[in-house]
Amino acid sequence: MTTPLRLDDVTKTFTTGDTTIAAVDHLDLSVDAGELVIIMGPSGSGKTTLLQLIGALLTPTSGTVTINGQAIAELTRTQIAELRLHQIGFIFQSFNLLEALNAVDNVAAPATLAGTPARQRRQRSRELLDQLGLGHRIEHRPDELSGGEKQRVAIARALINDPALILADEPTASLDAASGYQVLHLLQDIAASTAKTVVIVTHDHRITDAADRLLWLADGVLHDRRADFATATDPVCGMEIITERAAGTRTHHGETMWFCSQVCLHKYDLNPRLWTPDPSSAPPTPPPDLGSEHDADR
Ligand code: ADP
Ligand code: MG
Fold first, then answer.
1. Which residues contact 272 (CB under 8 A, 6 or more apart)?
2. 8 A C-beta contact, residue 139 and residue 126
3. For the chain, does the N or the C end have fewer beta carbons within 10 angstroms?
4. Are 86 and 28 in contact (CB under 8 A)?
């Protein structure tokens, strides 16, 4: 069986002014059919770039991306458009729905491009929305839907042309915890029940247990383990960042905090108490003998 997705020594560099950075740096990856791979990485680690290379939305500077045995570089523009339309479903963090269209027409849009007859595509769109628990929302426009509902519409849209490969860029980042889980379990079900290959890139720690395989991206390089680099959570935006590359640090009651950007640092400085728990409200430290027992529980 052909491997649905393979990257061989893929690099993507961006040049801005005098500086060139490798957003994806000599990266190898092979994903099996039906496998759900989650790639975790802090902000700026190259997640979106990697996913767009896989989805043929970006061309690598060097190296080869192969989808279902076809090297993208060997395809014509038209063939790449066909590949994207039929073999890849892309789910964006911000949903990217068409505001003027209702749910059923949003979902059906890629089927229109694929030339599916109108009745057939509307029926398939309804079925998918039904399966994703949105049967009662098919006539609603995006502005009448919650974040979780919008993301489910976007998932249905990614599935309408029955692609073998589903790619999701931070699909839970704009959602509350409950909707995030729901969306993730849908993706998990899709991978398991239809043997579709799913690749999710995220900095959301809440969702990692759903993965068949968990990988870590840092500075455009993939790692099997997280221990290869130190990270911390920015207390303001909640984003995971590599401590070495933090925009700045602050210390509060002897604990160091790292910030992703000057914006978060500035927000923190304006009102530190907003972002740091009051130590008086923290649970009391257990006595030493209890402490070791608690540790064993974890
Ligand atoms: P992530 O999705 O993990 O936050 P990105 O893939 O968006 O990371 O970005 C990785 C790195 O590449 C960052 O340093 C970012 O600034 C840079 N980058 C991404 N896209 C471009 C672009 N179009 N032009 C210049 N630099 C870019
Ligand atoms: Mg990104």
1. 250, 252
2. no
3. C
4. no
- How far apart CA 165 and CA 4 sit, in angstroms, is 7
- Cα-trace Rg, the chain: 22
Which residues have CB under 8 Å from 155's CB, separation 6+? Answer: 91, 132, 171, 183, 186, 187, 190
Residues, Cβ < 5 Å to ion ligand 2: 47-48
Per this entry, what is the length of the chain? 298
- Looking at the DSSP bridge assignments, the partners of residue 221 are 218
Q: pLDDT 10s per residue in the chain (298 long)?
A: 688 999 999 999 999 999 999 999 999 999 999 899 999 988 889 999 999 999 999 999 999 999 999 999 999 999 999 999 999 999 998 899 999 999 999 999 999 999 999 999 999 999 999 988 899 999 999 999 999 999 999 999 999 999 999 999 999 887 888 888 888 888 888 888 888 999 999 988 777 778 899 999 988 999 887 656 677 888 888 877 778 778 899 998 888 999 988 888 999 999 998 888 665 555 545 444 443 333 333 3
Q: Is 47 in the pocket of ligand 1 (CB under 6 A)?
A: yes
The ligand whose atoms approach the alpha carbon of 47 most closely is 1
* Of 14, 54, 59, 244, best ligand 1 pocket probe by most atoms within 8 Å of the beta carbon: 14
CB of 48 within 6 A of ligand 1: the answer is: yes
Per the CB < 8 A criterion, the answer to whether 69 and 247 are in contact is no
- Residues 141 and 105: their CA atoms lie apart, in Å, by 9
The Cα 138–Cα 128 span in angstroms is: 10
| 3-state DSSP assignment of residue 262 | helix
* Ligand 1 atom closest to the CA of 217, numbered from 1: 3
Taking the centre of ligand 2 as the mean of its atom positions, its distance from the CA of residue 280, in whole angstroms, is 37
